[in-house]
Amino acid sequence: MARVVVVGAGLGGLSAAARLGALGHQVTVLEQAGQIGGKLGLLRREGFGFDTGPSLLTLPAVYRDLFLKTGAPLDDVLELAPLDPACHYRFPGGLTLDVPNDGPTGVSRAWAQALGERAGQDWTAFHRRATQIWDLTRNPFLESPLDGARTLAGLARHPADVRTVAPWLSLRGLGRKYLSAPEQRMFLDRYATYTGSDPRRAPAALATVPFVEHAFGSWYIPGGLWQLGAAIADRAVSHGVKIRTSAPVERVLAAPKVEGVRLESGETVPADVVVSGVEAAHLYRDLLPGPEGRGARRALRKASPSLSGFVMLLALRGRTPGLRHHTVLFPADYDAEFDHVFGTGPQAGKPSPVPDPTVYVSAPDDPALRPDDDHEAWFVLVNAPRHEPGTGLDWNAPGLAESYATKILAVMASRGLDVRERLLWKEIRTPADLERDTRSTGGAIYGSSSNGARSAFLRPANRSPVPGLFLVGGSSHPGGGLPLVGLSASIVTDMIGKA
């Protein structure tokens, strides 16, 4: 069995550690922060609690597999509660929609009730195409390590399959082929942001994102999703894994194969295998700056970094009638949002805070996250440009964060959610804060975006150019989001088992 060092105690690193520990490897996890979880965090203050990362679990089979392969089943450890409705949407023009959590048929029915029978039929047809894309891409693109051009070659042997996946088509382009209602196309566009991407450039294959959400359900963990990371850490420790916090890694040692890591304290931790759960750009730029990572750095420069997010944690007095767990408030001009975030179109080269953004609210009706039944804890997120002082937007500019928070509260009020008179306090987290806390470049939530047909092949591979060094997490293959991060840990565990 190998000595394994896992760099980073985010969900990818912890999942890999638990799986490898269960196989008998000697595993040590090194986390630079004072707590585990990475982007899957928790903030508690004055009786309020906030998930500071994901607030929704889809494709729970990924984590059921992890727990089954490492011990007791997931449902013996955590409660998974279905969310119904999965989300409440408010569109420009006044349409509102509750998306039910009872399968694809229920989603089509909701569209038919909101916009007429044609809309229901359109969504059914779209979901059928998304199902076909899922069936074709799940194993070669999501559950296996990418094998460069050979992965595409396998698909290309069947022209009908290529036409189904349509690698030349954007997600928005696919939506236009199936969806006649502008509200439905806007609804679909939002799923590109699940990978930090622009729907005008993200591939049609991202139709699998709404497919997964609707086919396998939307789930919440009472008490907060942060508990998923804590439960995986407990499972890892039960297999002898050592988890060290406040232990930032300075360098991956390789000559030419992996020999271990050196901490910022100067301590050296020897290893036969290193699994990096930190952002790939940070790994290859800072932890492996020599010639071994030159090719990976070159590939990363070709990729489009993902968007970031501007977050407000709101402690509110009183209760909101009819409030759902998730609410999305769409703007009048969705394209303008992506232009501001990515610095494209009229904003070319000038990314800036979105003046009229989509607002995402997560407000669980969860007694564990509020001091009493007369209060609410809201997580509010808007898409935002990365923190790039000197070349782009500097989120540390004096007064910017506070003035933008005031702007977002006003936008929420204009769309029917005015909480300004109920606000006890708020905490603001900018892309600069995310970069500092997680060492993600510019606060990019997902590392590389999925912008462009070749984006999957520009995303860093799970096996690095350095023998014995592997990558897990949202910035490596197969991508960001809780399901894909969990799949990356499964892929890497299999690769190490075969190394």
Automatic annotation (TrEMBL):
Keyword Oxidoreductase annotated: yes
Which residues, if any, are the signal sequence? Answer: none
Q: Which UniProt keywords apply?
A: Carotenoid biosynthesis, Oxidoreductase
Functional pathway? Carotenoid biosynthesis
Stretches assigned to the Amine oxidase domain: 11-314
Task: Please report which protein family the annotation says this sequence is part of.
Answer: Belongs to the carotenoid/retinoid oxidoreductase family.
Q: What is this protein called?
A: Phytoene desaturase
Q: Which organism is it from?
A: Kineosporia corallincola
